[in-house]
Structure formats: C-alpha cells, structure tokens
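#structure-requests
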Amino acid sequence: MTEPPLYDTLGVTYTATRGTDPRLAARFWKALGDARSVLNVGAGTGSYEPPDRYVVAVEPSPVMAAQRSSPAVRASAEALPFHDDAFDAAMAILSDHHWDDPIAGLREMARVARRLVVFQFDAQAFPETWLVRDYLPEFHRLIGPPTLAERAAAIGARVEVVPIPWDCRDGFLHAHWRRPEAYLDERVRRGASVWSRLGPEIEARAVARLRADLESGAWHARNAELLELDELDLGYRLLVAPRDAVTG
C-alpha cells in the first residue's frame, strides 16, 4: 500500500516535476501486449496509463487521487477489490516499494490479471550512482526486503533493463543524472520520496555538498564521461510476467 502520510504531503506538488516520458510510456505500453483492460495499481496521477485501453486505477492516497483526470478506486495492493481474471493486464509504475507487502501485492495483481508489467528500480544498484555514492550514502538505510530479484521470482517475471534518457521528462530520483543542477530545486526533490524519507538534515547536507561541487567544478571532473551519454543504466528494470508463472 502506498504510504498515505508521505504521499499526502509529497503529492501536493507531485505534478510539478513528475509526468509522462513518452519513451518510457512506449516501453511500458508495448509490454502490456494486446491487453484491452488494464489495472493500474498505486496509480498516482496516472502518468503512464495507456489512453487507448480501458483502465481502472487503484490509488490509496486522496491527495494523489484528487489530481487525476479520472476516478480511482481507494484500495491497497494487498487486497484488490476485484474478482479473479478481472483484467487482461495489471501494471505498477514505481509503486510497489511503497506497499506494506510488495510480494503479496504482486500476487494480488497476478490473481486479478493475466499479465503483469511492473517498472521498478534495483535498490542494490543505486549505491553505484553518483547521486547516492557522493551525496546520499545513507540510502542504504532504505534498502530492505524483498529485493528486486525476489519480486521477479515471486511472479516468474523476466527482467528487462530500462536505460534512462538524459532528458527524461519524469522527475523520479535519478531522472536528472546528466542535469545535476536540477537537484538544487526543492520542487524536483519533492517529486522523489527518497529525500523526505532520509530526512531534512541529510537532504540539506547533500544539497549543500552538491552545490559546492557544481560551483567548484568537482562534479564535472568526477562525472565528465556522463555528459557524452544519451541514456544510462541506473538500475531501473521492467518486470513482465504471465499470470501462470506466479510462485508461492
């Protein structure tokens, strides 16, 4: 289940920096295959809901749901109020790390849909990124079970690498990997829950250090090779599974 206290706070400005990146959207929609009915779990504001299919959204946060252009069912991923095989496919976009029990939620998705498409990050890969390595080393506090591999195994999913374009239009945590100045903007930081979860002292220290490194040229000296890349593997993955592969 999405954490209501957190997203009832962050959600107020969520649409300022979070939106649909068309390249990611095309990847997700292709993974849905020929599904005509789609359940979006932890739907938020609905950035990646395919416009040419019948979509039902599940979103527990009233603040997030209020920013949608269409209604959402108030429910948790772990107890979806739908009968078996109600949908052709179910999707979750950067959502299941906020659920109380991700494995239970994924299995619920598999109960109500024949195909699963889940976009998520591999937290084990994040310490290798410059943002975490140099400015947010405390991120390790947020890493807990289940791992991405365990989630994939629970639903029998194949795991696909999703490189992030340098000019990604959706401002999740690492979207600005080639635009470090963006992280100095509080609106950008409010669009990614990690900053709030780590707390104001860590956030203030990280921002101050990044600002100093940008002004001195230290960031560019350490990361010059990134400026030549159009996309980068930052640990984001797409899990795609048929329902009959679910285990447990």
